[in-house]
């Protein structure tokens, strides 16, 4: 979700195989650069596959990390969030005929002027179709449930604390109706100067 | 063919006589007049049903609730005539009443219960070609007093073998029926209390019964307007009323 | 036709008055007769008549095939409410029944406040797992039959008899797509007793059952802590504990716990109407010195 000079990603922390809860403190959101976050949702065993893939995005010599580093070496600067979001699309399409069953969300801030930042908010299908409207994007098992509440609560140009309230309440509302999500939630709030991570107390059923 | 005598028209239940009568139904109504007396009185506080239980021999055990039975918890039934026939009708009424609760989650109205009984009562004859279920071949030789409380308040109905049903403020059927009706007519008024009605029922039974009235040869039940529940009066209660009778 | 159609699941008014037992129609007939009769009924009236009920059928000959293709083409229509944790066990003071309250349609939580204990009448309880409508309809039907029995015979039927009525119905409709897994419990002259009945017409009398997607998790807690000589308080706490654990592990179970106690004296009591399982979870975990978030022993790592 985007605000005025801020973006946020909210996610639950459950990992499961079908109906059975496996882990209730599972990490789904990763920092790509200082100005870009990536959250990924998927289902069941694919989440585990994805976890490895994602960890390697950030920690190891994975495809994404390789591409990020190569870009930095060639260009001499960090990749902008907008650019990264397009890179993810093409990278997912590389697996067009054997895709990861994931739907990532990207939230980032790109500097456009003195103290003025443009939010980058987008989501993808599993083979890299990029969807973005600049306001908010949703993904995962509770996606349909999130639309209604996000459309109701969202307003453009929210300040960071307001954005935190809106995104948290939207997520909590959807968690109440999605049986496959919940068991804890985290909100990642990114501003030009800092990244704040907060835990939300949620239902445990 | 020899015509004009009723003997030829009273054999089948599906033939009218030239005067427009179905004799078997009329005979069935006659059968009720041999039955023991049953009385019902409606008041604003509730309905009372009372029956006489004939004990042909001292050796016979006084059966419980033979002629005064529960149809549903808000509705009772007193009968006069062939008790075996009544049991079929009562069973039908019970099933219909429970079926109504099942489908609508509410109590069946007393009128509807009575109508269900009357529908079955008139459904006699030879049956139709190809149907599996054989209906009763003759009319049911019984009259019922159906009393209860529903959304329309306390109510008293009477059915007879012709499928007719009528609503009454007070009604007596059976061998002492006519006498009892005259008796009740003198004392009944629409503002009676339930206790007065109970007493009137007992007093009337006492006056029409051949035997001496005792707690084991009469039975009364009431349905109160406020509780809408059928209650059967205990022998002690009945004894108490008997002791106050004139 | 001698069977009247009132547009409702009604009309045993036209059935023989004396048939209580619902299994008379099928068991005495050859399979071919049944099929023949079924086809005949479908062909002429579009209704499936059995034990006096009129169930509307789809136009066509192959009913089971129709349901199957419906399931493929319109899964939402035929995916009835499923996913549950229900448990019941006998102990010295009767039978304890504990259930969750979640209803799901796929992953969507359609309610967290369902009443899965069906109060059949003042001495019988049934739990609800599988198709909510199937459980509700047939258990209410048994309630009606019990009442008719009581009116006819002047005494209440035994729990064994009432449970047999339900099992007989399940046998009659076996293979026709009913979905029901119920713990049928009640109290009669002999005290409280407990049966498990499902849509395969299984009917088992037993001490301890847990039914539904969360049942396996509930068994874990139940089997560890169950004793026959528990007090009512202990039994209630065990029920709460087992349901809470199951709702934690099983995503299709959740909401609130409801506890019923069937006494040995012919009636049942509602002990707890709604305790939030989430609150219970935090409470239990904090009693152990945990936070309840499940991150004990893990590094506090955010990125």
TrEMBL record, chain A:
Q: Which InterPro entries match?
A: Ntn_hydrolases_N (IPR029055), Proteasome_beta_3 (IPR033811), Proteasome_sua/b (IPR001353), Proteasome_suB-type (IPR023333)
Specify the superkingdom: Eukaryota
Write out the annotated subcellular location. Answer: Nucleus
Q: Which UniProt keywords apply?
A: Cytoplasm, Nucleus, Proteasome
Look up keyword Disulfide bond and say if it applies.
no
In terms of Pfam families, this protein maps to: Proteasome
One cellular component (GO) term of this entry: nucleus
- Give start-end of the signal peptide: none
- A Gene Ontology biological process annotation? proteasome-mediated ubiquitin-dependent protein catabolic process
UniProt-recorded name of the protein: Proteasome subunit beta type-3
What lineage does UniProt assign to this protein's organism? Eukaryota, Sar, Alveolata, Ciliophora, Intramacronucleata
The primary gene name is Contig5301.g5675
From TrEMBL, chain B:
**Keyword annotations for this protein?**
Cytoplasm, Nucleus, Proteasome
Among PROSITE patterns, the record links this protein to: PROTEASOME_ALPHA_1, PROTEASOME_ALPHA_2
An annotated GO BP: proteasome-mediated ubiquitin-dependent protein catabolic process
Q: Which domain of life is it from?
A: Eukaryota
Which CDD domains would you find in this protein's record?
proteasome_alpha_type_5 (cd03753)
Q: Which InterPro entries match?
A: Ntn_hydrolases_N, Proteasome_alpha, Proteasome_alpha-type, Proteasome_alpha_type_5, Proteasome_asu_N, Proteasome_sua/b
Q: In what residue span(s) does the Proteasome alpha-type subunits domain sit?
A: 9-31
Q: Which GO terms describe its cellular component?
A: cytoplasm; nucleus; proteasome core complex, alpha-subunit complex
Checking Pfam families in the record gives: Proteasome, Proteasome_A_N
Q: Which family does it belong to?
A: Belongs to the peptidase T1A family.
Task: Describe, as the record does, how this protein assembles with itself and its partners.
Answer: The 26S proteasome consists of a 20S proteasome core and two 19S regulatory subunits.
By its UniProt entry, which PANTHER family does this protein fall under?
PROTEASOME SUBUNIT ALPHA/BETA (PTHR11599)
Q: What is this protein called?
A: Proteasome subunit alpha type
Q: Gene that codes for this?
A: Contig19823.g21021
From TrEMBL, chain C:
Q: Which PROSITE patterns match?
A: PROTEASOME_BETA_1 (PS00854), PROTEASOME_BETA_2 (PS51476)
Q: Where is the active site?
A: 84 (nucleophile)
A Gene Ontology annotation in the biological process aspect, one of them, is:
proteolysis involved in protein catabolic process
Q: Which CDD domains does its entry note?
A: proteasome_beta_type_5 (cd03761)
Q: Which residues form a coiled coil?
A: none
**GO molecular-function term, one example from the UniProt record:** threonine-type endopeptidase activity
Keyword annotations for this protein?
Cytoplasm, Hydrolase, Nucleus, Protease, Proteasome, Threonine protease, Zymogen
Matches recorded under SUPFAM superfamilies: N-terminal nucleophile aminohydrolases (Ntn hydrolases)
> What GO terms fall under cellular component here?
cytoplasm; nucleus; proteasome core complex
Principal place of residence: cytoplasm
> InterPro entries per the record?
Ntn_hydrolases_N, Pept_T1A_subB, Proteasome_bsu_CS, Proteasome_sua/b, Proteasome_suB-type
This molecule's function is given as: Component of the proteasome, a multicatalytic proteinase complex which is characterized by its ability to cleave peptides with Arg, Phe, Tyr, Leu, and Glu adjacent to the leaving group at neutral or slightly basic pH. The proteasome has an ATP-dependent proteolytic activity.
What name goes with this protein? Proteasome subunit beta
Name the species this protein comes from: Stylonychia lemnae (Ciliate)
Q: Which gene encodes it?
A: Contig8570.g9143
């Amino acid at each position: 979700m985007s605000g005025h000079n801020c973006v946020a990603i909210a996610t639950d922390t459950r990992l499961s195989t079908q109906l059975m809860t496996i882990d209730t403190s599972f990490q789904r959101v990763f920092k790509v650069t200082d100005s870009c976050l990536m959250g990924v949702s998927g289902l069941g065993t694919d989440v585990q596959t994805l976890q490895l893939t994602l960890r390697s995005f950030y920690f190891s010599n994975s495809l994404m990390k390789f591409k990020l580093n190569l870009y930095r070496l060639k260009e001499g600067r960090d990749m902008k969030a907008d650019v990264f979001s397009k890179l993810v699309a093409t990278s997912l399409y590389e697996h067009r005929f054997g895709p990861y069953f994931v739907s990532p969300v990207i939230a980032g801030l790109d500097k456009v002027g003195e103290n003025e930042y443009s939010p980058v908010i987008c989501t993808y299908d599993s083979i890299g179709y990029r969807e973005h409207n600049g306001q908010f994007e949703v993904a995962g098992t509770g996606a349909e449930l999130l639309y209604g509440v996000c459309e109701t609560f969202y307003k453009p140009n929210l300040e960071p604390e307001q954005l935190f309230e809106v995104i948290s309440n939207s997520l909590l509302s959807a968690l109440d109706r999605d049986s496959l999500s919940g068991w804890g939630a985290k909100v990642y709030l990114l501003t030009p100067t800092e990244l704040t991570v907060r835990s939300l107390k949620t239902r445990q059923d | 063919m020899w015509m004009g005598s009723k003997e030829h028209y009273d054999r089948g239940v599906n033939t009218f006589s030239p005067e427009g009568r179905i004799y078997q139904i009329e005979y069935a109504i006659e059968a009720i007049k041999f039955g023991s007396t049953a009385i019902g009185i409606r008041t604003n506080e509730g309905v009372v049903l009372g029956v006489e239980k004939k004990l042909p021999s001292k050796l016979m055990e006084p059966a419980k609730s033979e002629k005064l039975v529960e149809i549903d918890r808000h509705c009772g039934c007193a009968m006069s005539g062939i008790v075996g026939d009544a049991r079929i009708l009562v069973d039908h009424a019970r099933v219909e009443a429970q079926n109504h609760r099942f489908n609508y989650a509410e109590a069946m109205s007393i009128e509807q219960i009575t109508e269900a009984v009357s529908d079955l009562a008139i459904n006699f004859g030879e049956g139709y070609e190809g149907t599996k279920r054989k209906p009763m071949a003759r009319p049911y030789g019984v009259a019922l007093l159906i009393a209860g409380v529903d959304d329309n308040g306390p109510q008293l109905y009477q059915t007879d073998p012709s499928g007719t049903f009528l609503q009454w403020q007070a009604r007596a059927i059976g061998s002492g029926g006519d006498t009892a009706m005259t008796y009740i007519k003198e004392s009944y008024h629409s503002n009676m209390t339930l206790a007065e009605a109970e007493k009137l029922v007992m007093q009337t039974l006492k006056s029409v019964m051949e035997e001496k009235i005792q707690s084991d040869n009469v039975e009364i039940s009431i349905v109160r307007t406020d509780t809408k529940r059928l209650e059967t009066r205990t022998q002690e209660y009945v004894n108490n009323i008997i002791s106050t009778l004139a | 036709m001698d069977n009247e159609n009132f547009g409702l699941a009604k009309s045993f008014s036209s059935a023989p008055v004396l048939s209580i037992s619902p299994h008379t129609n099928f068991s005495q007939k050859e399979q071919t007769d049944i099929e023949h009769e079924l086809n005949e009924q479908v062909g002429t009236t579009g209704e499936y008549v059995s034990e006096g009920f009129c169930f509307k059928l789809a136009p066509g000959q192959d009913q089971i095939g129709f349901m199957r293709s419906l399931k493929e083409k319109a899964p939402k229509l035929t995916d009835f409410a499923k996913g549950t944790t229900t448990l019941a066990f006998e102990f010295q003071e009767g039978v304890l029944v504990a259930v969750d309250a979640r209803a799901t349609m796929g992953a969507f939580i359609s309610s967290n406040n369902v009443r899965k204990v069906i109060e059949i009448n003042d001495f019988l309880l049934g739990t609800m797992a599988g198709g909510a409508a199937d459980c509700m309809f047939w258990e209410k039907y048994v309630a009606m039959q019990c009442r008719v029995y009581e009116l006819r015979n002047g005494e209440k039927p035994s729990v064994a008899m009432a449970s047999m009525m339900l099992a007989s119905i399940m046998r009659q409709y076996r293979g026709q797509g009913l979905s029901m897994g119920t713990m049928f419990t009640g109290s009669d002259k002999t005290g409280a007793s407990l049966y498990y009945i499902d849509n395969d017409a299984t009917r088992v009398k037993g001490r301890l059952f847990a039914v539904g997607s969360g049942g396996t998790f509930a068994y874990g807690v139940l089997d560890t802590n169950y004793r026959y000589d528990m007090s009512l308080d202990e039994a209630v706490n065990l029920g709460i504990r087992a349901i809470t654990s199951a709702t934690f592990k099983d995503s299709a179970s959740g909401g609130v716990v409801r506890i019923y106690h069937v006494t040995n004296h012919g009636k049942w009591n509602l002990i707890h109407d709604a305790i939030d399982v989430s609150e219970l979870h935090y409470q239990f975990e904090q009693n152990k010195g945990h936070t309840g978030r499940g991150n004990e022993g893990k590094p506090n790592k955010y990125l």
